[in-house]
Every structure is written in structure tokens, then in C-alpha cells.
Amino acid sequence: MTETRVHELETEEEWVAAFPVLNQLRTHLDEESYLDYLREMTAEGYRFFAVSVDDEIVSLAGVGVQVNMYYGRHVWVYELVTDADHRSAGHGSKLLSFVEDWAEVNNCELVALSSGLQREDAHRFYEERAGMERASYVYKQPLK
Which SUPFAM superfamilies match (predicted)? Predict the structure, then answer.
């Protein structure tokens, strides 16, 4: 029987196991940089959740609680990715639903995220499957 579970990744061993999936989204990262970022981010409240099927990580979400003037207290989803070989099996929806429940437990008013313009499949998922609404554009200015 197949066992599917949603769980938090808290140890470096778990983070290393998750790297191949996360690297499909964050292709610019090597494992060392990824681990350095996670050490710093988790110290600042970042939480890292996974869907595992028979102990194989197939989907990941990295989130944090934020408070600002326009969303109030909310969960920001920094990463949401499902392994390419496991997409369209409901793992992303399961994980996002878990994040929504986690947000409610943590007294948040909503879940928000940003998605790159080129990620059209992800946009369809967020709007059609997850029922999210497109709320804004995000702009950036790299510093020299």
C-alpha cells in the first residue's frame, strides 16, 4: 500500500534529501548554497514542508509568516515545487491545502506567493486548481 504524508523537514539530512526536488525550481543553487540559505532562513522562521510518497520526497513548500500593511498577518510561500516525475498527481494541491491549514492555525488571514512570468503551468495550477487569484505584479531591481 502506498503511504503519502505531509511533514516538516527540520534536519540537514532531510534538507539534503529534498535538494534534488527543490533544485528543479531553484536551478541556480548548488547544494552548499542551498544549505547555507536554509540554515539562515530557518533561524529567521522559515518552515520547510514536504509531501512524501513511500518515504520519497515528491513535493516541497517553503513558507514563512509575515505581517505587512497590505496583507496583514499572512503566510508567504517562497517555494512550491513538485518533482517533474510526480506532477498532476495531486501532491501540490495536497501541500498547498496543508499550508492553508497551517496558516489558519498560525492566525493568518491569507496565503500569498509570487510566481515567475515564465511559469505558465504554475499559474494555471494556482488559478484553476488552487483557486487563487492573481493579485499583482512583482518588480525587482538588482543592486550592483
Answer: Acyl-CoA N-acyltransferases (Nat)
